[in-house]
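Researcher: Please translate sequence to structure tokens.
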Amino acid sequence: MTPPAGVPSYDAHPRQAPVGGTVVRGWAAALAALPDGPGVLALDGPGVLDWTAAVAGLRAAAATTGLPLSFLDVREHHAPWDVVEKATRSARLPDDPHFATLAEGTLADLFDGVPAPGRPGAGWAVVLGPGAALVAHDVLWYADLPKRYAEAAITAGTARNLAQPEDAGPGTTKRLFYIDWPLLDQHRESLAPRLDRWLDLQDTASPASLDGATLRRTAAALAGRPFRTRPTFNTTSWGGHWAQNTLGMNQEARNTALGYELIAPESGVLVGDGPGAEVEVPFQLLVGLHPREIMGEPVHRAFGTSFPVRFDYLDTVDGGSLSVHCHPQSDYMREVFGWPYTQHETYYMMVGGEDAKVYLGLREDADVERFEREAHAAHHHGQAFDIERHVGTFPADPHQLFLIPAGTPHGSGRGNVVLEISATPYLYSLRFYDWLRRDADGAQRPVHVGHAFSNLDRSRAGAAVADTLVPRPRTLREGDGWHEEVIGSLPEMFFEVRRTVLAPGGRADDDTADRFHILNVVEGEGAVVETAAGHRVTLAYAETLVVPAAVGRYTVAPLGAGGARLVKALVR
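Model: Translation complete:
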């Protein structure tokens, strides 16, 4: 759907200009930036990267200039697979088919000794692969591929996990999510302050790259002004079509179920001057470089470099209902899954059908033991049951926010668009029931009945759900043509959701007060955000904006002749 003339449309590729440098394309341009050799070049990056193609690209580029290159692949020095598995085995979840405790340790634990390449007589010895930076080197490059490629490749069976040999079977998303990614993220974050070049290998034949100094200058600049991350939408069995029809996203896809607006472990920031001249840099890398400026000192003190709030869409318009599930309670999340904080959520209803519903909490008369028996029978024997006999439902009224503390059964019904404003952990949906749905291969989709009932909060039942989890707005501040209201807050949830309501011509004053804000336009043509330092950002309907803690004072005004509504999340 194309917006009327003059109305900004949803931007799927928001770019941030590099500071003091430019993005270049091709292996030859990257090699041309090397200092005079001879020396050792460490080319680090994730395991899913096509390292064979990278070597071919480097060889071809070097051949045109006569630059001598030799290669050493650190993957040939991994420890035996049984040793790797033992070192990364989850003691609390040794046989769980879907979950593992987050990996501890470092990437170095996967190696059977780090190689020591000899210094070449001329040119460069290129040490490559995940962990290449562990080898003594003169120049350090990081070649990246956004995580969405890794998940797609593992799911398709075309990639293996970190340190996994060819004869060890296919890779698994379980290892990818809970072992590989934590180790790689920690490793990459440790390298960021001293990288000499960042390469984006979405096009392996002609990668885009940016020198490390420009990367760090750009990160420092972004830490002091509002910016957007690159949104992505994924397909699932229950997905709808709102994002395709309203935002123009993923027109070729089967549906647009999950929209990642801002999820720190996966979101990227596009740095460049236009298509073909941009690199995608992990948002988490920027946070790791400037945690105090982006998150604020109180939040950094509480969460380290883990950016703790996420925004994403759940699109079930002309799709199906989500599973009914819950998330781990705090102790379980920490002790079993290894996350230091848990997956509290909220649902903000962007769109709700006339008869659409949200599943939330237990019914007053729920028989939990019967619920558990029926959930096990559905899982093991394919026996359908009426989930509404146990779980309550509420009308999916547009702009209503539902609070979903950990342990609360919940799910979105069909016909809705939910803006999830939640704690960052996002891989721990413990399913009670998934409607006996089948995946693309015809197998029944997994549920996690044992985990789910181990975390079920039985106090979230009956009238208490409506009283505490379906809040009414409370005005917090107001001015000429605007007011701000609290629409979601609970003592046990560390973040709060507010909404700024702007009348035509209204302009709301705000201040981060050393705590980041996240904004999203939930109604109206859009909004203009302007900081005291003079940075100005136009935000279209449904777009999400990070306002770093360092921004301080800023204003928000509606676009066009109409008003607007924006939701805002912050850590209390």
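Researcher: Any highlights?
Model: Residues 173-191 form the longest helix (19 residues).
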